[in-house]
Amino acid sequence: MSASQPYIPRAGERAPATEKFRGSRSAELKIWWREVDRVLLFLILLLMAIGTAAVAAASPASARRLSTASVQLPDLYFYWAHLRWQFLGVITLIGASMLSRDNARRVGIVLAAAMLGFLVLVPMIGHEVNGAKRWINLGMRFQPSEFLKPGFAIALAWILSWRLRDPHLPVLAIVTAIMGVVGLLLMLQPNLGATLLFGGVWFVLVLLSGVSVQRIGMLIGGGIAGLVAVYFLYENGRNRIDAFLGGGTAFDQVDLAQRTLLAGGWTGSGLWLGIRKLNLPEAHTDYIFSVIGEEFGLLMCAVIVVMYLAIIARVLVRLADEDNLFTLLAGAGLVTQIGGQAFINILVNLQLFPSKGMTLPLVSYGGSSTIAVCLAAGLLLAITRRNPFLTRETPGLRKVPPFKKFGAMRKTNEGKRS
C-alpha cells in the first residue's frame, strides 16, 4: 500500500486549511475556560454588576451637581457613559486573562516602562483638574498612574524573582529606587493617595521576597520618615490629615460621606430615593460606597466588603502552592493593589482614613480608570491560570526565603523530638 503523498501547492495556490487550524480559536477558548480561576472571574464580574447599579443610583446626584446654566446633564448621563466604559472594560478583562503567563509578564513590563515615561511628562504637558495635574490628553484623557499600577506590580515581581538565579543581585536596591522615582513623580502632581498605594504594593512584594527582619525595620522607619516629611511639605495632605484627626465639620467631604452612608439604615431607602447623596461631591466616583449605603443599605455594603475579602482570599489560596516565585509575587502584588485601593476608599467613606481622592475599583464610575482596573484584574486572572490536571509537589510559600527558613527549622525540631 503506497503512502499518501504530502500536498505541495502550486505557484499562487494556498494549501487547504486543516481542521486543526479551523478549530484553534475554539480550542484556545476551551483551554482558557479550563485553566482560568472561574470563581475569581465570577466575583470580579459580580462586583462590576453591582457597580453598574451603584452608578445608576449616584448618576442623578453628580449630573445635577455638575450641570450649569448653559449645559444641563441628563440624570442618567454617567450611567450610560459607565455602561460604554464597562463594555470596553469587560473586553479588556477577558482579553488580558487569555494571555499566557509569559505574555502577561511581558505586557506588564512594557506597560510599566511606557506609563513611567508618561508619568515623567505629566508635570510638563499634563492636564490640570481641581488643582492636580494628573492627566494626559492624547485624544483620550487618562491618568498614567492608573495604568502604571498593574505594570508596577508585575515589573517589581519580575525584578525580585531574579534572586532565585543570583542571590547576590541588588534587587532590593533596584526596586527601592524604582519606588522612589515613582513616588517623587506622583508627589509632583500631587497624588499622595496613589503614592501610599504604590508604597504598599512595594512593601508587600519586598516582604514576600525574603528580606531580613533588620532591613524590614529600616524600610518601615524610612516610610514613617517619608510620611512625616509629606505632612510638613504637602499642604493639601496636611490639611486633610488635620481635618481627619480633628474630627472635621458637618461640611467636610468625609463627614458628608459618613452621614450619607448611614442615612439608609440596614436596608436602604431604595433606588433613586436617597436625599443626602445630592449634597455629596463626587458621588459617582470617590464616594459611591456612601451612595450604596444610603440607597441599598448597610447590608449591601457588608456584602461588597465580603466580596473584596473573598477576592483577596481566593488569590492567596491559589498562590499558596505556587512553585514559581514570579507568579507568587505578581499575583500578590496585583491583589494588593486592587484590595488596598478598595479598602482605602471604604475607610475614607467610613471616616476612618483621611480623604485620598481614590475610586472604588470595579464599582465606581470611571473612564480610562475602568479600563485600567479591568486590565489589572485580567492580568491577575492570566497569572493565576493553572492546568487543573497538573499537581504541584512543592508549596509556593516554602520557596519564599522566610517561609523556607521556617520550614527548615520545623523539620529540625521534628527530627529532635523523634
UniProtKB/TrEMBL annotation:
Descriptive protein name: Probable peptidoglycan glycosyltransferase FtsW
Family: Belongs to the SEDS family. FtsW subfamily.
Membrane topology note: Multi-pass membrane protein
Domain of life: Bacteria
Annotated Gene Ontology cellular component terms: cell division site; plasma membrane
Reactions mediated catalytically: [GlcNAc-(1->4)-Mur2Ac(oyl-L-Ala-gamma-D-Glu-L-Lys-D-Ala-D-Ala)](n)-di-trans,octa-cis-undecaprenyl diphosphate + beta-D-GlcNAc-(1->4)-Mur2Ac(oyl-L-Ala-gamma-D-Glu-L-Lys-D-Ala-D-Ala)-di-trans,octa-cis-undecaprenyl diphosphate = [GlcNAc-(1->4)-Mur2Ac(oyl-L-Ala-gamma-D-Glu-L-Lys-D-Ala-D-Ala)](n+1)-di-trans,octa-cis-undecaprenyl diphosphate + di-trans,octa-cis-undecaprenyl diphosphate + H(+)
Originating species: Pontixanthobacter luteolus
Biological-process GO terms, alphabetical: cell division; peptidoglycan biosynthetic process; regulation of cell shape
Residue ranges that the Swiss-Prot or TrEMBL entry lists as coiled coil: none
